[in-house]
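From the pipeline queue, job 12 of 40. The input is one protein chain; the requested action is below.

Action: predict structure.
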Amino acid sequence: MSVLEWAALVIAAAAAMIVLGVSALFLRRSVLQRDGGFDMCLRVGRHGFGNGWVFGIGRYRGDALEWFRTFSFGGRPNRSLRRAELGVVERRTPDGEESAELPSGHLVLTCRVGDRSLDVSMSDRASTAFLAWLEAAPPGGHLVG
């Protein structure tokens, strides 16, 4: 085999790996969304470029909200937020910089998770479902707000 043939073979193999990787991401996304998942962004940090917003998929599992990174091959959630430790402090529209970073139509919810604060972003419909899920906590739980 000539060098040109080897180069073509390596390029074809790399292209096949990229196609398989992208296909795996789409398959994972469709499986998560079929199980009741919805688009949900988390703000990891408030400093630096992009303010730390990370795209993901959220889904409810019992008394926990599981969050999976969109661009990950992992089968386990990257974060799991327990309903008993979670409360919404504020619900607002994204500010100027956030509106350029987040999907169109998303709202920002500032949540309290134990003694920490966490920002999440989701559509209006998903945020309504999220608030209903929080308020549906068993008797003796906490109220939102």
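Job complete. The domain at 37-135 is CATH 2.30.29.30 (PH-domain like).
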